[in-house]
Design goal:
Layout (H helix, E strand, L loop, with lengths): L1 H16 L9 H12 L9 E2 H11 L5 H11 L10 E4 L17 E4 L1 H7 L10 E3 L6 E3 L8 H5 L1 E4 L4 E4 L4 H13 L5 H4 L13 E3 L2 H9 L1 E7 L1 E6 L5 E7 L6 H13 L6 E6 L8 E5 L5 H11 L3 E7 L1 E4 L2 E4 L2 H42 L1 H10 L3 H10 L1 E3 L4 H7 L11 E3 L2 H8 L8 H26 L1 H19 L6 E3 L15 E7 L3 E6 H5 L19 E8 L3 E6 L3 E6 L13 E2 L12 E6 L11 E6 L3 E6 L11 E2 L9 E7 L3 E7 L3 E6 L5 E2 L7 E2 L9 E8 L5 H18 L12 H4 L6 H9 L3 E6 L3 E6 L13 E2 L12 E7 L4 E6 L4 E5 L13 E2 L9 E7 L1 H6 L11 E2 L27
Parallel strand pairs: 8-19, 28-33, 41-44
Antiparallel strand pairs: 1-3, 2-3, 4-5, 6-7, 8-9, 9-14, 10-11, 11-13, 12-13, 15-16, 17-18, 20-21, 20-22, 21-25, 23-24, 23-26, 24-29, 27-28, 27-30, 28-34, 31-32, 31-35, 32-38, 36-37, 36-39, 37-42, 40-41, 40-43
Helix pairs in contact: 2-3, 3-4, 7-12, 7-18, 12-16, 12-17, 12-18, 13-14, 14-16, 17-18
Length: 922
């Protein structure tokens, strides 16, 4: 089996898929061209049916499928596939739109002139080796005596077994110039040859960007070349431009490219295009893309380059058969192999011509001797009884060479020289030629012609001998023939070469503009220019920030510029990254686009966190991403682990079966992590308690021990401040009194509350000021609509992995409540509370009571029977300014925050911070 497979592999490599470096052809192409030459289908003959040609090839040389032979012939006739066409086709031979050619019974073809004169010429002069065909009924050439490096000029592509080749086409004139440079100096370097061959030249034109890929390909045989279509802009008037594509990259299906552009426009993948049409005709290619009014046409063009086949990469793999073996070749290797091959072709052709010239000279020498002795020859023939006697008489007699002797001396044939006595003996061939001589050749004029032809042939023999004796003379012939081919067949470069520094970066063309990015609870996202909000600030009422439906509401709003990267972390533990300019643009009141249309999310996958990051990715190395899952696991990674996120996402955290990612926050080493659970527990521990993980495929470490069906609902990052129990209790009383005074509830001595007046034996005035400077208020909300503010100092720092301490008293009241939100807020912030019945309230934080941990709080939203709070969103001070009216456009009822009921009901006890609050540690 091993032997059979190796035989098959070598057959594919040597006899099917890889071109020969000498003529640049695979066996099927070589057989097609040779069969057309043998069949008389030359460039100066009438066209013949393609089916006839395919039949000749299949019947004599290539015993494979007729479709494979026809496809190979069709490609050699396509102007958009071959840099120099080798087959002249008549009829439908396909198009750049991917249209297939007509059936072989309809099309006609013949050899192109360049194939007949530059690839097949001299094939009948013993220039190349021949071998038996597949059934040994005829002979076929092993290679064609090509006069130019066809491998480079027309390129090649093929997949063998374990190897593949992909050679780009080049300009004929440039390649021949490089060959001449190598002929002049065999020690020329690849860099010197690149002065003549600066890069590929594709039949469809286009623009090659950058030189590095070309340099790599020419030096090593492998390289990646960036190719773009050729475009220009046309004015449409009224601040509108049109992008006109006049050339497409090599091997790009134009129709599929236009379809791809249309798909991106429909799916909002590319914005700023108002119309698209293909105006190509027999005069040339023309695809018109009209830009919308106000759209930046340079940006649109760069988006087309990035997302469509208007820009492609040609992977060079310069693999060819050299000496019958597959070999990776450099530019110089290909040229050197071709020049060596041409030397052998010219040597063999010259030796063949020398043999033919000597044979003719030998015959002419005999005729010349006979003419010089014409009377004696005629007399001998006349008296001979039969032709055989005449022949014997001519052979036996020594004839005077007379004036022919010097010419015979130049021929200098062994065994056929003039004797010392000036006589010459004829050979069998000469005697036969004399007997076949017609009488009219005996006239004086004909005798002069024989002598003239003999002298001419003698000159040729001398020339052939000089070529064979002198390498310099042979190389001069080689060079001259190369220049003739260049003069006759070169038609000028089509592909433009541009240096990489002139390439415009896609992002560089996108203007920097402040954007308001809005993410809704249901997963809708959009970006709106900040100026769209500022333009209406004087109206007093503000404007709608997002049109939402049902119980949807704005969950995240942040302001950044168009170049800011945003990391999206999903509940499945995946990370996705988009620049802000990639987010769908919208109006202040529009809903936006669902994130599922932007990211490859699964059916039940949702976005847990949208995190704007610094644009300078070098600064990410000093920052950390802290992950928290519903099962209580946490993990800390360097943010630099997410600099390279592909379009299909990147695994951010490995999750156990049934677990989900709850939150991701940027953290620093000097901060604390606060995890809150559904059952009203919370644990606070230093960020440094979680080591930095090097990989992203682990589930992390235990951050909080959960009991029963409890699960983590949120993670917050807090300042790291150590306080004692007495300081916590004292500060809680101080914060409560200060809030009441700010709300106008305080009287008497509390009106002038200061740190000095509030200081007690447990805490000094300076310590109060210090704690107040680092104050963080944690909002905790239950699904029954109750909530409270608690200073973060109340949550003492413990070790990770514990069950934590009470964050909210859920046992009080009717029924069994659950804590659904816990996060830090600022006194000037607002929060959005929404129920599963569509009830929603935007409530200012300033109106929420400060209370201890082990309390229930006050009513934030009055929920109906059987209704529960399902989500709480945090709107920062800046977010309130930019999206203040976002909730008013949704379908549910909205409570006015100005008259929000933030006082406890009559049946609810006042659970303010004045009551004792024992730490109920687990």
């Amino acid at each position: 089996m091993r032997r059979s497979y190796l035989d098959y592999a070598m057959s594919v490599i040597v006899s099917r898929a890889l071109p020969d470096v000498r003529d640049g052809l695979k066996p099927v192409h070589r057989r097609i061209l040779y069969a057309m030459k043998e069949g008389g289908y030359d460039y100066n003959r009438p066209y013949r049916k393609s089916a006839r040609i395919v039949g000749d090839v299949m019947g004599q040389y290539h015993p494979h499928g007729d479709a494979a032979i026809y496809d190979a012939m069709v490609r050699m006739a396509q102007y958009f596939s071959m840099r120099v066409k080798l087959v002249d086709g008549q009829g439908n031979f396909g198009s750049m739109d991917g249209d297939p050619p007509a059936a072989m019974r309809y099309t006609e073809a013949r050899l192109a002139r360049v194939a007949s004169e530059a690839l097949l010429e001299d094939i009948d002069r013993d220039t190349v080796d021949f071998q038996d065909n597949y059934d040994e009924t005829t002979r076929e050439p092993t290679v064609l005596p090509a006069r130019f490096p066809n491998l480079l000029v027309n390129g090649a592509g093929g997949i063998a077994v374990g190897m593949a080749t992909n050679v780009p086409p080049h300009d004929l004139a440039e390649v021949i110039d490089a060959c001449c440079a190598y002929v002049d100096d065999p020690n020329v370097s690849v860099d010197d040859l690149m002065q003549y061959v600066p890069g590929p030249d594709f039949p469809t034109g286009g623009v090659v960007i950058g030189r590095k890929g070309i340099r790599d390909a020419y030096h090593t045989g492998r390289g990646s070349i960036l190719v773009r279509g050729k475009t220009h802009f046309e004015d449409l008037g009224k601040d509108r431009k049109a992008i006109v594509i006049s050339e497409v990259p090599y091997q790009v299906n134009k129709a599929r490219m236009v379809e791809r552009i249309a798909e991106l426009v429909r799916d909002k993948g590319i914005e700023g295009i108002s119309d698209l049409r293909d105006e190509s005709d027999r005069d040339g290619l023309r695809v018109v893309i009209e830009c919308s009014r106000g759209a930046q046409h340079e940006v649109v063009l760069n988006q087309l380059y990035k997302h469509t086949p208007l820009q492609t990469t040609f992977g060079v793999n310069l693999l060819a058969l050299n000496g019958g073996r597959p070999e990776m070749l450099s530019l110089k290797d290909v040229i050197a192999a071709f020049v060596a091959f041409r030397q052998e072709v010219i040597r063999r052709r010259t030796a063949y011509e020398l043999r033919r010239a000597r044979e003719r000279a030998h015959t002419l020498a005999g005729l010349a001797v006979a003419v010089a002795n014409i009377d004696e020859v005629i007399q001998l023939i006349r008296h001979a009884p039969n032709p055989e006697s005449a022949r014997q008489g001519l052979l036996e007699r020594a004839w005077p060479a007379a004036e022919v002797a010097p010419l015979i001396g130049i021929i200098d044939e062994p065994g056929h020289r003039v004797a010392d006595d000036g006589t010459y003996k004829l050979s069998e061939a000469q005697a036969k030629a004399i007997l076949d001589l017609r009488l009219h050749r005996l006239t004086g004029l004909e005798r002069e012609k024989i002598e003239g032809e003999l002298k001419e042939i003698v000159d040729k023999i001398q020339e052939y001998l000089e070529i064979l004796r002198s390498r310099e003379k042979l190389m001069a012939v080689l060079r001259e023939e190369l220049v003739q081919a260049k003069t006759k067949y070169a038609d000028g470069r089509r592909t433009e070469l541009q240096d990489a520094e002139f390439e415009q970066d896609d992002e560089a063309l996108i203007p920097r503009e402040e954007m308001v990015v809005t993410v809704s609870h249901a997963g809708y996202v959009k970006r709106v220019p900040l100026s769209a909000y500022r333009a209406q600030r004087r109206g007093g009422k503000g404007r709608s920030g997002m049109s939402t439906r049902d119980e949807d509401f704005v969950s995240q709003v942040f302001v950044c510029d168009t170049h800011t990267p945003v990391l999206f972390f999903s509940s499945r533990g995946m990370a996705y990254k988009l620049k802000v300019y990639r987010l769908p643009a919208g109006q202040p009141a529009s809903r936006g686009k669902h994130v599922r249309n932007l990211l490859p999310l699964e059916q039940d996958e949702t976005i847990s966190t949208a995190m704007p990051l610094p644009e300078d990715e070098d600064a990410w190395g000093d920052m950390f991403a802290m992950f928290a899952t519903a099962s209580g696991n946490v993990r800390r990674n360097s943010l630099s682990d997410f600099t390279n996120v592909k379009a299909n996402g990147k695994i951010a955290m490995k999750l156990d079966e049934g677990d989900r990612l709850v939150s991701v926050r940027v953290a620093e080493g000097g901060q604390d992590v606060l995890l809150a659970s559904l059952r009203g527990k919370a644990v606070r521990f230093p960020v440094t308690d979680v080591r930095v993980f090097k990989g992203r495929d682990s589930t992390g470490v235990r951050g909080m021990r959960l009991g029963g069906d409890d699960q983590v609902i949120s993670m917050s990052i807090l300042h790291h401040v150590q306080v004692t129990t007495d300081e916590r209790e004292a500060y809680l009383r101080y914060a409560t009194q200060k809030r009441r005074q700010a709300n106008g509830e305080g009287t008497g001595e509390e009106t002038g509350l200061t740190p000095e007046s509030a200081a007690t034996a447990e805490i000094s005035a300076d310590r109060l000021r210090e704690l107040e400077a680092h104050e963080e208020l944690l909002l905790t909300v239950g699904d029954d609509g109750f909530g409270k503010l608690t200073p973060a100092y109340e949550y003492r720092i413990t070790s990770r992995g514990t069950q934590g301490i009470t964050a909210m008293d859920l046992a009080r009241g009717k029924g069994s409540a659950q804590m659904i939100a816990a996060f830090p807020v600022d006194p000037n912030d607002q929060v959005m509370v929404v129920t599963d019945g569509g009830q929603l309230i935007r409530c200012p934080v300033q109106g929420i009571r400060i209370a201890g941990r082990n309390t229930r709080g006050v009513r934030l939203l009055r929920v109906a029977q059987g209704e529960r709070v399902v989500a709480v969103a945090h709107l920062g001070e800046q977010d309130i300014e930019e999206a203040a009216e976002a909730a008013e456009a949704q379908g549910g009822a909205v409570a006015d925050p100005a008259v929000a009921d933030t006082t406890p009901p009559a049946d609810a006890p006042d659970t303010g911070g004045d009551a004792p609050d024992p730490e109920q540690d687990s």
